[in-house]
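Mods, move this if it's the wrong board.
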Amino acid sequence: MAKGNRESSIYKRADGRWTAQVALPGDSRIKRRRKYLYGKSREDVRRKQVEAQKALQDVGHIAPERLTVSAYMRSWLEHRKHELSWQTWRRYEQLFRAHIEPTLGSVRINRLRPDQLRDLYSSKLSEGLAAETVRHIHKVIRAALNQAEREDLVVKNVCRQVKPPRKQRYEINPLSPDETRTLRETMRGHPDEALYVLALSTGMRQGEILGLRWRDCNLDNGYISVNRSLVFVVNDWYLQEPKTASSRRRIQLANEAVDAFGPHLRSQLEKRMALGEAWQDNDLVFPTDIGTPRRGANLVYRSFRPLLERAGIRRIRFHDLRHTAATLLLGEGVHPKVVSEMLGHSSVQLTLDTYSHVTPTMQQEAATKMNDILSG
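Not the wrong board. Structure tokens:
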């Protein structure tokens, strides 16, 4: 029995994965390009194929020369849903819907001009949009047009002829050593003491801390493994894998952090016993009082800010605890490579660029040491 076109484009690879093909729109005079979708089963890739083909319907029946920015980008976003993390895809979709489509949506994609992009960026900056947000808008349009160029829908990507706004440098706001010690003393006995000690001593991101599981903790040997980050999407949640290999890391803990885990574990076990079957076991180290994942906003408003007020410390963001850890470590002469690995940065240069305010002190210490060497 002959297979339909859809069925014949699904096959199993030698490595065991299933693959589905989807023909992309393009000039019929040229060999049609194809998109490959992968999955663990035939049903999985068939579902992805159906969704992709449905998304292409909006552009498939439109002649390439009449295809608008709106029609193409909607289809392109539907394709990227299976390639990007949910957070990233949602951000792309929001930027398109709020800023790109209202201005450029009706423009035919093969007639999009550089000056139209420049006008868009200028108007958004005039409206008060941050330069970094406009840079993200440029990134989304550039990515979509790169694909359109590969599909021969545009002669060239006009984004290459337009410079986005210059990247703004934001001042970081770390705690001073005295403020850090004050905060440490204030948090003693606090229900979230272990959480804050971990943040201050390791520089972990909030999502990494709230997504930390007991299986990732080796307290006997004094280290934890960062493998996931907690992400909320509306009222649903999931543990997202790190975007880069450097974000997946093992961190050796300070004794203060290891010691703080003991009382925290005992407190959690008592809550589990008291709740019985009502406890929702997700293996999280820092869940809510019933075991469910904890929202970052709730942590900040209900715990972190009251703690700062009690300590008499200026209001900072939770993320500034990460900056505090990095600044203190670099200031104490810890090698930037070690600090970069602890933070999960993609490169040492990123660490040095972010914490350039510490560099003069490091250079002064280096000059002093060199002077001692030369003077004997």
